[in-house]
Design goal:
- The structure is a single chain.
- The protein is 40% helix and 8% strand.
- The strands form two sheets. Strands 1-2-3 form a three-stranded parallel β-sheet, covered by helices on one side.
- Strand 2, helix 2 and strand 3 form a beta-alpha-beta unit.
- The two termini are 27 Å apart.
Amino acid sequence: MTFDDGYESVYKHAYPVLKQAGYKAVVFPVTGYIGDWNRWDANLGGIRFRHLSVEQIKELSRAGWEIGSHSAHHRPLPYLNGYYLDHELLRSREVLQDMLNKEIMTFSYPFGLQNSRVQKAVKKAGYKFACKNISLNGMTDNLLSISRIPVHKFDTLKSLQKKLSIASYPMERLKLSLLNWPARFTTLYQILFRKQLSLEK
């Protein structure tokens, strides 16, 4: 199980439930917003969510959770030039390694967006594994393009079972691709206003 963005809700809600059940997971914080609100998001509805704090990330790591990177500012990586792409990958890894004093090996592509150029940059930055969203081309054995099945807050046990069923996989891929359309607003927002996003963190 993986959790993108590194919201505080992971610590408050998912962590206690999984701990009681004896499970661990992977969380991918956006390092430029640790302890901050999700200002990287377009937030068309004005909804704000708090990101995990440094201490919360450290506690999850001590509990056996894997901490991976979700970039520094949640930018759409294929649209970035080499300088900004390297910053998103290297800076976020550096922040987490300094924080946890351990190697960060896993990366999650913001918005699930990636291509061969981005994959090469991820590998060059030192990551061994990288996750994307569900693929319309099915599963691959490329460790820098690992497919996942998204689960949303409105999913039921029945819909989750369908997602895990091979027979319904093509239909679920189509449905999930449609559900991901709203994320394009944030992608467009960041492309148009990327010069206003700080690269300090």
